[in-house]
Amino acid sequence: MRFTFTPARSPPGRKLLDRHNINAEQVTTVVLIKGGKAFTKSTAALAIAEELDFIRNLLHLFIIML
Fold it and tell me: For the chain, which terminus, N or C, has the lower number of CB atoms within 10 Å?
């Protein structure tokens, strides 16, 4: 998956947030829009980590440390 980043208060960011009924002025966390759905807070962070294979990389770190 490829990620595209945009500030929430930029014109493209506001357009995306408006489309998903999220008030750009109240956003204080990461928002992930995936498959036509908006995810926020820990749900967004976990979905991003999953796409980045974060868990697998973290397990490899533990294996190296052993």
Answer: C
